[in-house]
Amino acid sequence: MAPRLNLISPDFTRLWIGQAVSSVGDMVFSTTLMLWVATVLAKDESWAPAAVSGVLVAGGTAVLVVGPIAGVFVDRWDKRRTMLGTEVLRGGLVALLAVVSFLPADALPAGVWLALVYGTVLLLHAAARFFAPARFTIIADLVTGDADRARAAGITQATSQTALIIGPPLAAPLFFTLGVQWAMLFNALSYLVSYVAISSVRVAPAEKAPVDGSGKGKAAGHRSGVLREFVAGLRFFGRSRFLVALLVFAVIGQLGVGALNTLNIFFTTENLGMSAKLFGYVGMAIGVGGIVGALCAGRVVQWIGARRTTWVSLLVSGALLVAYSRQTGFVGGIILLVLFTIPLTVLNTAMAPLLLSAASAEYRGRVVAVFQPMTQLAAMVAAALSGWLAGTLLRDFDGSVAGLRFGPIDTIIAVAGLCILLSGLYARGALPDPETAEDGGPAGGPAGDEGAVEPTGPAGKTASQAAAVRSPAPPRRGSTE
After folding, report:
1. Quick one: average pLDDT of 196-217?
2. pLDDT on residue 357
3. What are the counts of helices (DSSP H) followed by strands (DSSP E) for the chain?
4. Is 445 left (phi over 0), alpha (psi -120 to 50) or beta?
5. Residue 481 and residue 477: Cα distance in Å, rounded?
6. pLDDT (average), residues 391-416
7. Which residue in 298, 316, 300 sits closest to 353, CA to CA?
8. Spatial distance between the Cα atoms of 215 and 175, rounded to a whole number of angstroms
9. CA distances from 169 to 133, 166, 283, 345 (A)
10. Distance between CA atoms of 153 and 80, rounded to whole angstroms?
11. What confidence category does residue 431 fall into, taking pLDDT thresholds of 50, 70 and 90?
12. 389: phi then psi, degrees, rounded to nearest 5
């Protein structure tokens, strides 16, 4: 048996190294953008929450517009070359923004700076729409078997959450002492490291079997059109009641998490009384919870099963987010953030093997391309709506219920927690048991296709790629979440 330090296989280990470095770069970059917009570009402005939400909306727009079609091309193209090309493009974009940011802040109007930030984020996320499904497919090729895929999902989740511990606390001192430029240059360098790591991965060439609208393979050189292949992917997804159910509760849950992602910087500084210079420790707390959740996920699924893991995780995390919204102290808030992230990460880690198995090789890019735009649209709506409510309609809101006082930010976050609770209630009734699933469930695979997962398999008790409901964190590179 190979030692655990090998991380499943040498190629997966090299892919993981690239992810580890780039994830830290992402966290530094994302946290820096939030701080830059909130404390410099929109400082003391009533529209500051909306300006911060614009960062998330820009990324969500790219996912929504580019994501669906990107899956078709990823299914056609060489996956490794696709990943390498996107790293070159994204590294260049970040480096270009870093160069421009050396200008004094007053050299350009705030609107121009925000346009540059939003434009860069939009292009970065557009490129990531090709990177994420390509990486997803490569992992499916490198790692076989439910047990190893569950391990791979756990390693990926734990690495991303470790980056949350390292990145944000590193970003805040860099930003306040050296300026925004150095955090951007750091992220550009992380793309270079990721490129080198990916270039060392060797993946056996896959047989090309494009699919037409009828779902039948077609020989190379007789490819159907992009639109026809995209529609074929939608039909494949729509035939699976299981995948459709996953998507519905994922969208509901994402409405809640998206609001927290947008407003957390304001909640921690206004409601918890924390200095903006300590904001990085919020990400650190989320990272700690994520690591604990990733390490516990396998045991939790074995203990209570996949279906219960899904809806219980959503119910618990929703209740904890409501409790978080009532906090007024830094210590209590940090503790609840850690606890809130644990069940979300358990859910995310447990869901990955099923989506890998449910989507046959020729459809993997398109399956991811259905999940990502829809969940990202929910996050984008939540970001825009919560930013708008906090800055306009609820700006001066001050109410009380049963002696509990409510302000604008904590009220929105409490409603976000209720959205996640609603998602858990829906999941409890909608997801089939492995023993009774007739189609699209863990036992049957989507529409009876070849991606079936045996209900008694070691990790075949999970639901979907965990991208559906994310932990509260800035946008991550190359994530299938």
Report:
1. 61
2. 62
3. 13, 2
4. left
5. 10
6. 79
7. 298
8. 51
9. 30, 6, 8, 21
10. 19
11. low
12. -65, -45
